[in-house]
Amino acid sequence: MQTWSLVSICVLLAIIARWGVSLNSYSGAGKPPMFGDYEAQRHWQEVTYNLPIQEWYFNTTNNDLNYWGLDYPPLTAYHSWICAYIAKTINPEWVELHKSRGYENTQHKLFMRTTVLVADLLIYIPAVVLYCLYLTDGSSKKKVSIMFCFLLYPGLILIDYGHFQYNGVSLGFALWGILALGLGWDVLGSMAFSLALNYKQMELYHALPFFCYLLGKCIKTGLMGRGLFLLVRIGVTVLATFALCWLPFLAEPSQAMQVVRRIFPVARGLFEDKVANTWCSLNTLIKIKSILSGDSQLYLSLACTLLAVLPSCIRLLTKPTFWHFKLALVNSSLAFFLFSFQVHEKSILLAALPACLLLNDLPLMALWFLQASTFSMLPLFLKDGLLVPYIVTSLGFLFFSIYLLSALDHCSEDKLRLGAYNKLFYWLPKMDLAFIVRWKFYISIAAMVGLSIATAVLIPPPHLPDLFPVLVSTTAFLHFLGTFIHFNVVQFSEPPSRKSQKKSN
Amino acid sequence: MAADSCSWFPALAVGVSLLKCFFISAYRSTDFEVHRNWLAITHSLPVSRWYYENTSEWTLDYPPLFAWFELGLSQVARRFDANMLQVENLNYASPATVLFQRLSVIVTDVVFIYAARECCRCVREPKGSRDVLSRPSFVLAVLLLWNFGLLVVDHIHFQYNGFLFGFLLLSVAKHLQSQHLQGALLFAFLLNLKHIYLYVAPAYGVYLLRSYCFAQDNKDGSVRWSSFSPLRLLALGAIVTSVCALSFGPFIAMGQLPQVLSRLFPFKRGLCHAYWAPNIWALYNVLDKSLAVLGIRLKLLEEAELPRASMTGGLVQEFEHSVLPSVTPTVTLVCTLLSILPAVASIWLRPHGAQGFLRCLLLCALGCFMFGWHVHEKAILIAILPLSILAVESREDAGIFLILTTTGHYSLFPLLFTPAELPIKVALMLMFTIFSFTALRKLHSSQGSLLHPLEVIYLLGLVAVAIACEVVFPLSPWQQRLPFLPLLVTSVYCAVGVCYAFLRLYASLLLRREEKPKQL
């Protein structure tokens, strides 16, 4: 069969899976007074459509910032504004100022779901298809298999089409950036990534690897000659893109400052809810929030994050190859997720995107992490009534990624890049690491299945109401920490494959 | 892709089963309530009341074996939500009920998956290691398991066809493997589960009589009367009567047979279903309608004299034709019998083994679909699924398959009319169509193109019809005045394709008969 037909079948399946999930409930459905992210997105449409652009980020009589105030960068606001125009032509009630609060019905749900699908079809899905076709190696069947797993990653589908968000847009822009960098179009890549940053500030998780890769590349080509020219071009592109996105807010400094304040809410505390990161997991042992003041929490997390990001970024700076870039993206986003301030459970998607890029090179590790990342959001899915789609998509992803990528067949020490561990632990008797890894994988999958069932079915003891969410987040945290350490080790061991070297040039 | 030659089948089966789970909360038709009601009837009422109960308008109108099947399901249903098992709880659809009913369809599809596996075993594999994706058995497995029509009708619209087609395909596979008694047993079960499979009963009857009861043929392929084996006929008869006794026995004992039969064959319904199935009668109705319009234009007819035009909308079940003679059930019966007669006669004269039987089965199914009384559009699946087996084996049949499936599947579109399901039906249809076109072309790549350019143009016309009916029409002002127009256009356009496929299939059967002796 020709590649085009396999690719189109893959994309169609991805659309069916996405739309199948979207038939289910969304966050905050029928839960006044605050509802959930669905209402937040609808409210932004209402605000951006009805208010002048100067009022969008300010608390005014018509714009109550305590009710889902806009707290994403301008591109999100523009996107809401475009959607609002379409909404207005279909049914003006959907975006009526004040009166439309908490508006819910099946038609409106259909409209909102469609906007997500359209955004995905325009930005995320083409990026994935092009990435898999041009930047993974192997037969066309192999490429399509990777594409299939990439497109069917459950976490993103469940959050975007179940819970309701537009992560596909920011992640899609970031992926366009990665794609362009991989193909050697550095200027276009930095522009795409700037757009991603301007859609969601969380894309900062990926910013350092982008910066280090481009800088390292400039240094390698010679900072005095062509490298400098490239650096200037990239710098100008980034500045121009940012200026373009922020144009309406640049007239007054107070405007721009207010946007920045809204985007980085430092006052909200070290963490909220149950997040599978270091602070929340540590909280079960030490109550950090009560020991440290707000500011020192901020500095502590900042210091830890920088420390965690540093090694992989320095490595990337000295060896700016695409292979190291991909690894640094995972490491940096995981470092941010594990250690930074005010992390949401959904932010794990930022680490999941670069992990998908590694499905071809390190199938077992990548899919293991991806599975754990989906699992870490289980309490959220349960709250949104997405248990059935969670089970279906997770089982499907686990089964097909193992089957199509033959993840468990090719797991010799060499394939898993475990060579470095033998050097690290040279003083221990030599063990079959691949065997151990495989058993760890089985045990971890069993633990995730067990905990999923327990969370969904069992009623926690009355004195420990949060037992299962805490267990889920701690288990997921252990997985993330393990992945973080492993990918750092892989990045510091020499790249054994010729293929990744070849591609970086 | 794993190199192991067998591992792809479970992967396909798991994949499609998970896909079906996505549709759990999708739109469901009144058939959902029909089956819930039957669960309630069989669970809470004594057997003697089953075919008399009429609290709900959806009375039990499947044969008794299906009622027993529902009784079995209801034992599990009790654990999900006992309230669904009360006859008075009309239109009851709690989340647990929906989950249970949807899962029951998905789980009972195991029969279908097993049958598809057996069919794949019957396909000749060409020698030499070929790519998995272009092996006939792989293509057949996808064509069966991922069939668009079954997914849409069973898992969105809601019915138990997968389970039933499992019996049909399994029985066909048994015949292909020359295990005739098993095949007959399975078909007897099938008939007692859903009587619509009477469509293909003539093919079974004649084939079993001809190729099983007469053990040998003459050299020229005609029947050798002396080889008749009464023992085999007795065995067949015993199988069929015992299955029927199991199913109908209790009702015969209670003297309820007339009541049961009146429920099974309700001739009070009209010639065509609310939405016209794409068959001869759809063309006939349109011809009648256009003659009437033409007559009024040319002042040959008086508008007042015509019976009230009642073909509008989907609500009216019975209507009279205005110009052409009205069609009675007897006429349809005669037409149907005439249409299948040559096929049946052909396998009596020269059976051509199980392949010939399969071809005859298809013609019976299509003949009944074309000329039957009150045919549902879903019945096209009885032809599409078995035709998949032939399509992977010969180029000629692959071409017919592509025309029949594409038009037949498209004619199922009006089943799902809710806007939320539009992306799913379009994507599923595209996926299946792209796969069947590319895979079959690859499979028969050595023998030239599968379709005549005119056929390609006709099929491309479907895209135009789809866009016009699904996108343009709802936005146009005609939506208010002529709401039935898209249904009419769809069924007429598809009827042309189905008729053409029927004729081509007939031609392939009859021409084969003449070719064969030349080769010998």
From TrEMBL, chain A:
It comes from the Eukaryota. GO terms for cellular component: endoplasmic reticulum membrane. Its EC number is 2.4.1.-. It catalyses: an alpha-D-Man-(1->2)-alpha-D-Man-(1->2)-alpha-D-Man-(1->3)-[alpha-D-Man-(1->2)-alpha-D-Man-(1->3)-[alpha-D-Man-(1->2)-alpha-D-Man-(1->6)]-alpha-D-Man-(1->6)]-beta-D-Man-(1->4)-beta-D-GlcNAc-(1->4)-alpha-D-GlcNAc-diphospho-di-trans,poly-cis-dolichol + a di-trans,poly-cis-dolichyl beta-D-glucosyl phosphate = an alpha-D-Glc-(1->3)-alpha-D-Man-(1->2)-alpha-D-Man-(1->2)-alpha-D-Man-(1->3)-[alpha-D-Man-(1->2)-alpha-D-Man-(1->3)-[alpha-D-Man-(1->2)-alpha-D-Man-(1->6)]-alpha-D-Man-(1->6)]-beta-D-Man-(1->4)-beta-D-GlcNAc-(1->4)-alpha-D-GlcNAc-diphospho-di-trans,poly-cis-dolichol + a di-trans,poly-cis-dolichyl phosphate + H(+). Pfam families: Alg6_Alg8. Pathway: Protein modification; protein glycosylation. GO terms for molecular function: dolichyl pyrophosphate Man9GlcNAc2 alpha-1,3-glucosyltransferase activity. Its main location: endoplasmic reticulum. It is a multi-pass membrane protein. It is an enzyme of class 2 (transferase). Residues 1-22 form the signal peptide. The chain crosses the membrane at residues 110-132, 144-161, 173-197, 229-251, 323-341, 348-370, 390-408, 441-461, 467-490. PANTHER family: DOLICHYL GLYCOSYLTRANSFERASE (PTHR12413), DOLICHYL PYROPHOSPHATE MAN9GLCNAC2 ALPHA-1,3-GLUCOSYLTRANSFERASE (PTHR12413:SF1). Belongs to the ALG6/ALG8 glucosyltransferase family. Dolichyl pyrophosphate Man9GlcNAc2 alpha-1,3-glucosyltransferase that operates in the biosynthetic pathway of dolichol-linked oligosaccharides, the glycan precursors employed in protein asparagine (N)-glycosylation. The assembly of dolichol-linked oligosaccharides begins on the cytosolic side of the endoplasmic reticulum membrane and finishes in its lumen. The sequential addition of sugars to dolichol pyrophosphate produces dolichol-linked oligosaccharides containing fourteen sugars, including two GlcNAcs, nine mannoses and three glucoses. This is Alpha-1,3-glucosyltransferase. It comes from Oreochromis aureus (Israeli tilapia). The lineage of its organism: Eukaryota, Metazoa, Chordata, Craniata, Vertebrata.
From TrEMBL, chain B:
Belongs to the ALG6/ALG8 glucosyltransferase family. It is a multi-pass membrane protein. It is found in: Endoplasmic reticulum membrane. GO terms for biological process: protein N-linked glycosylation. The keyword Transmembrane applies. This is Alpha-1,3-glucosyltransferase. Pfam families: Alg6_Alg8. The chain crosses the membrane at residues 7-27, 99-116, 137-158, 196-213, 233-253, 330-349, 356-373, 426-444, 456-476, 482-503. One of its GO terms (cellular component) is endoplasmic reticulum membrane.
